Amino acid sequence: MTDSKPYDEERIILVAVEDGEFAGFVYAKREQTVPTFQRSYDLHVIEVYVREASRQQGVASELLAAVESREKARECEWASVVVHVDNHTAQSLYEDHGFDVKRKFFAKRLE
């Protein structure tokens, strides 16, 4: 087994600041797709966090829009995110930004 990456990957962190205070961040990665015919890139949103005092004020939406816009300009073709089935607030955020369910993720505890 090797430690080499099979394709290009770049991590992205954008931070929101309100009145000089940390308000939240988006953490994502830009990955090269598996090159079958032509090289392209996808954006994978790993986490969006907004501090309690800044929630329900559009901070998460602004962060998500910023990372989407930045990566679209850098030729990303798709954006994806994994959301816990019980996190309805996050699901609403992503749906408001045009995300649709494309796959189902299954998990189990190894005992």
UniProtKB/TrEMBL annotation:
Residues 1-111 form the N-acetyltransferase domain. Keywords: Acyltransferase, Transferase. Pfam families: Acetyltransf_1. It comes from the Archaea. GO terms for molecular function: acyltransferase activity, transferring groups other than amino-acyl groups. PANTHER family: ACETYLTRANSFERASE, AMINOALKYLPHOSPHONATE N-ACETYLTRANSFERASE-RELATED-RELATED. This is Acetyltransferase. It comes from Natronobacterium gregoryi (strain ATCC 43098 / DSM 3393 / CCM 3738 / CIP 104747 / IAM 13177 / JCM 8860 / NBRC 102187 / NCIMB 2189 / SP2).
